[in-house]
Structures are given as C-alpha cells and as structure tokens.
Amino acid sequence: MxxxxxxxxxxEEACIPVLDRGFIFGDGxxxxxxxxxxxxxxxxxxxxxxQHSLDGIHLKNPHCDKEWHDLIAQxxxxxxxxxxxxxxxxxxxxxxxxxxxxxxxxxxVLIMSTPLLPPARELLVKGASAITxxxxxxxRCDIKAISLLPNVLLRQMAVxxxxxxxxxxxxxxxxxxxxxxxxxxxxxxxxxxxxxxxxLPGITYDVVLELAAANNVLHEVREISEDELRTAxxxxxxxxxxxxxxxxxxxxxxxxxxxxxxxxxxxxQCYQHYKATVMRGELSC
Length: 285
Ligand code: PDD
Fold this sequence. Notes:
The chain is α+β, with helices and mostly antiparallel strands. It has 2 domains: 2-115, D-amino Acid Aminotransferase, Chain A, domain 1 (2-Layer Sandwich), CATH 3.30.470; 121-278, D-amino Acid Aminotransferase, subunit A, domain 2 (D-amino Acid Aminotransferase, Chain A, domain 2, Alpha-Beta Barrel), CATH 3.20.10. The protein contains 8 helices and 15 strands. The strands form 2 sheets. Strands 7, 8, 9, 10, 11, 12, 13, 14 and 15 form a 9-stranded mixed beta sheet that branches. A 6-stranded antiparallel beta sheet has the order 2-1-6-5-3-4. A hairpin with a 2-residue loop joins strand 14 (243-250) and strand 15 (253-254). The longest helix is centred in the last third of the chain and has 18 residues, at 262-279. The chain is globular. It starts with a strand and ends in a 6-residue tail after the last helix. The chain binds N-(5'-phosphopyridoxyl)-D-alanine. N-(5'-phosphopyridoxyl)-D-alanine binds next to helix 6 and strand 13. This is D-alanine transaminase. Belongs to the class-IV pyridoxal-phosphate-dependent aminotransferase family.
C-alpha cells in the first residue's frame, strides 16, 4: 500500500499526471526513512532534513510533523514486514510546463514502503568494493533532491564493474558516495568529512559519530584529501538502507589488510546494539 495525495491505495492503482513537475523537471525532494520493528528510526531528524530540503527549493511543507507521523504510521501498518524503508517524495505538483514556479498548485505527496532486508552476509564478512570518480554534481548536495541523474550515472559506474559504491572526490577532497556517506580510518582515528553544501547530511552519519563519541572511539570531522582516502587503514560507507558497511577494495586495490577492520567491527556492533535498544522501545526513535 502506498499513500498518494490523501489516499492509501495499492501501488498498481496509483497515478500521477504526466505534467507533474517531478516528472518534467525533477522538481521535488525526498526522504528515506528506515523502519525497524514497525518503528520509524530517527524520524525527527528525517523530518528536519526534509524541511531543510523543502526550504532549499522554496516549497512549503504540505504537512505538519503530526500529520507526517500519522501518514507514516498508516503506510507502515498497510505493509507486511516489521522492517521496511519508506520513501517520501514531494514534488511541486502538476502544472503547465514552464521552468518558473506555478501559482496555486498543490504539491504531490507520495509515501511508499519497501521491505528492509539486512545486507548480504558476504558483504559484511568480506567487505565491499568501491571505485572513485570526480564529483560532477551541483553544489547544493545538502538538498535531498529527486533530480538524481548525476548520482544515478555515478553509481552505475560502480555497478558496471561489480562494485557497490562510487566514492566522490571534488577538488582533491572526499565528499561522499553516490548514495552514501563515507568515513575512513587514519592512524587509528575515525575521520569524517564536515557537513557542507557539497554532501548530504546523512542521518546514519550522525548516528555513527554519536556512537563513536559515546564509545570512546577517537574521531575527527575534517576535510579528507584524496591521498588520505587512498592510504586509509579502513574505509566505511553509511546510509539508511545499508547501515554501515566496510569497503575493503578501492579502485581494485586492497584497503588496509583487505578485511573489515577493527573500527568498522566495533562501530558495526555499536550500531546493532543501539538499533536493538531503539527497537525494544528503550530509547526514543
Ligand atoms: N541515500 N549521501 C547521499 C548522496 C545519499 O543518497 C544518501 C542516502 C546518504 C546517506 O544518508 P542517510 O544516512 O540519511 O541515508 C548520503 C538513500 C539511502 C537513497 O537515496 O536511497
């Protein structure tokens, strides 16, 4: 079951007009929210980031937080599986084709659910491979825009060579992955690039930094050079759908000793423990 513009319905019955600006211009924003044991994870942070994205494209939020909570609860209840991930898409709505914003148009609001499956065991045990590419996206990557063509092309580059992610470099510095944030380990210190307009402020990124602080993992948030990426002891990616995953090959070269490293293993365990606590309802989502 999906939610579209005020109604819950089977996805096969959902229709969007061809003149929807999401289709015509990619004029909209989205969010991805993991749901564990039917509880949306970090919902407040996701709704705050959604507001930031909407502000970034000058689109009024069509719902208050309470309405979002209710709609999200309805979609979760309407779908099988205790673990799901939700996509919220909001576009500027359907209007005569013109680049300039239309007046008095109702935004299109879509919420859909997909079963959330744990990553393949092999990826967790052996780690994944990634490639690098030049970050050729726009410079408002902090907006979670639905116009994702550069990200699509960049991630396909990885898929074409059997890798899981493309790690992006802009002007000699690490920004993020095509669909994830990137951390690395240098001299046993966890390093993360600082949030800026050049990367999406990941919710999982925040969780990992909070867990590092709470578990006495030495960490630093600062600019990371290409050379530091290429000589890292460990590399990891984070995202709502992949959680935290070790990258053990970069551009066909082994990272560290070629296996998921000690900091990854520690943070992975902390993440699972934290998630379990939230799922038991002992901590707020
Ligand atoms: N993508 N950077 C980019 C470009 C992303 O697309 C994503 C997530 C992230 C990680 O953000 P978070 O931890 O909040 O999921 C960083 C999602 C999963 C997607 O678009 O499907």
